[in-house]
Design goal:
mainly beta, 6-stranded antiparallel sheet, 6 helices, 31 strands, about 10% helix
């Protein structure tokens, strides 16, 4: 793995074992596999796939045996059971950060760990707790924390974590010196640790699935969501989609929530922040950093430990931005200012791909905290543009926290999509997975929509399988502009009486490329769109770009 190790995909693991196919005469013997696997000199732990620890020879053998099985956000399993934290454990994931990093790097790791932990806490009901009192004795022998975060050097990886089933002596998150010098890399230390804490919560690498077709791991996992090339648990070296910092996608959030229950929902905690300018005093030693606006603290104290403030004499407007890394649906923003310095006038804006668009404009503000509700937008970047500072310091815009929410989660993102047929031309297909990829585009192209195969008689269908019962009231359909089907049926699966499809809504004479369907609560495990007649221009083709399913 280029991201998590110093050499190719699965550093420390013999690539031949992963590339030579099924068990046979060409497969490396376990003895040879073991000799080629990187082993930590101080602990004896084997490291496979760049950052996955195998505590002993028995675990390595189990991993090796799994390599012969066909590869199928996924969770690690042990003996067929999920390897996750249970009960009060998940809310008390205490850790220390070793002072052995040195003062400068120690501060970096503390900050990065907090930001990485906040991202997972936003998505799921888990709680990471830094215990500074244990930092001076932060090693594997410390029984006062669940795990230790400590430095390594020349370890053959950037960082390596552990799984929830690991014994305390091996429950370490080790960060190699090389992690501080990986340049030019788009992955920040916080991004690296977001990935590693995913492992700590029990998640496996996304690229192990057969859909990826690049890298292979063992078969000790089960799926939580459809394959997600942009997942924080993926890696570009193994065809991951991320060329920016590693951050949680919508499917990451849905997957981890399926294991641990919903988190606090604040999407801003997952992002990286920046600003047009920043006020600093003492030659940069004390700065009102933009990192303060999404650190999870609602403290309204007016100082550099709690708020961002623009630099002196720069002129307004000035802005502070939260970049989520991947598109998310957002329909609410909460702005918290300093109790003695909240801005009087500002805008909340989102990036639509080409320009900043305002969703809220405020003038004459007299409130420290304001909630802004607006129509859902799909964006990866949100900023506060400050036009006028406080009454006492009108030239300074002070913001203590920005919180971003999607108060209506799209259930379709957690479903598996399939279709009766799909149109393909060469290697390009109008695949069914486009209908729940989280991109509500209305473009008529294979990168945006599903379309049935040429020459197949209608009706044709595209289906979402939720993997279990879901209850919802509202369905949003996005269809291709100038390519929307004229006639279609929305059906849900009725498992009673042997199982059958039941019509929820029937549409005929359609001329719209976006439709909304609302009814009484429906509980089902599957939903499909059955197309009876395509567009006026191409009546034999049913085109669906996106299906969104909401509880309310």
């Amino acid at each position: 793995m280029a991201l998590l190790a110093s050499v190719g995909c699965g550093a420390g693991v013999a690539p031949q074992a992963l590339e030579e196919g099924p068990v046979g005469t060409h497969r490396l013997s376990f003895e040879e596999f073991e000799r080629r696997t990187y082993r930590e000199p101080d602990t004896g732990i084997y490291i496979v796939e760049g950052d996955m620890p195998m505590s002993n020879l028995e675990e390595l053998r189990e991993y090796y045996d799994g390599l012969s099985r066909p590869g199928a956000l996924i969770v690690h399993t042990v003996g067929g059971a999920n390897s996750i934290w249970f009960g009060s454990e998940k809310l008390n994931l205490t850790y220390c950060v070793s002072t052995g990093f040195g003062s400068s790097r120690y501060a970096q790791v503390v900050e990065a760990m907090a930001r990485a932990a906040n991202a997972w806490e936003s998505a799921a009901n888990v709680n990471f707790i830094h215990v500074p009192a244990q930092d001076s004795a932060c090693d594997a022998a410390n029984p006062n924390v669940v795990f230790d975060v400590r430095p390594g050097s020349g370890m053959g990886y950037l960082a390596r974590p552990f799984f929830p089933n690991t014994v305390r002596s091996y429950s370490n998150l080790i960060i190699d010196t090389s992690a501080f010098f990986e340049s030019p890399s788009p992955h920040s230390l916080a991004g690296l640790l977001r990935h590693e804490l995913g492992h700590v919560l029990g998640l496996r690498h996304e690229y192990t699935r057969p859909e990826d077709g690049s890298c292979t791991e063992d078969s000790n996992w089960r799926t939580l969501t459809p394959f997600d090339a942009d997942s924080v648990m993926n890696d570009p070296a193994c065809t991951g989609g991320s060329t920016v910092d590693l951050q949680l996608t919508q499917r990451d959030r849905i997957g981890i929530r399926a294991l641990y229950g919903p988190g606090n929902g604040n999407l801003a905690l997952m992002g990286n922040s920046s600003a047009s300018s920043t006020f600093c005093s003492g030659n940069g030693m004390h700065c009102y950093s933009p990192n303060r606006v999404n650190d999870g603290s609602r403290d309204t104290t007016s100082d550099g430990f709690h708020s961002w403030t623009n630099a002196s004499d720069v002129g307004l407007p000035q802005w502070v931005e939260v970049n989520l890394g991947h598109p998310h649906v957002i329909n609410q923003a909460v702005v918290i200012g300093s109790r003695s310095g909240f801005p009087q006038a500002y805008s909340i804006e989102y990036w639509n791909g080409t320009a900043w668009v305002a969703t809220a404009n405020v003038t004459g503000n007299t409130e420290v905290q304001r909630t802004h509700d607006f129509a859902p937008v799909v964006t990866s970047r949100v900023r506060l543009l400050g036009r006028l500072g406080s009454f006492t310091q009108p030239g300074y815009v002070r913001v203590n926290e920005i919180e971003l929410y999607n108060t209506h989660e799209n259930l379709a993102l957690g479903a598996n999509a399939s279709a009766s047929s799909s149109y393909c031309s060469g290697s390009t297909c109008y695949s069914p997975f486009r209908v729940n990829d989280g991109i509500p585009s209305q473009e008529l192209s294979p990168s945006a929509s599903w379309t049935n195969a040429w020459g197949t008689g209608l009706p044709q269908w595209v289906e979402l399988d939720f993997g279990g019962l879901r209850t919802f009231r509202r369905i949003e359909l996005y269809m291709s502009t100038n390519g929307a089907p004229q006639s279609f049926t929305i059906q849900v699966w009725d498992a009673n009486r042997g199982g059958r499809w039941v019509t929820r809504d029937f549409v005929t004479g359609n001329t719209l490329d976006r439709t909304t369907h609302i009814a009484s609560p429906t509980t089902t495990s599957k939903l499909r769109i059955l197309g009876h007649l395509g567009s006026v221009a191409q009546p034999g083709y049913v085109r669906i770009n996106e299906i969104e399913v909401y509880e309310n």
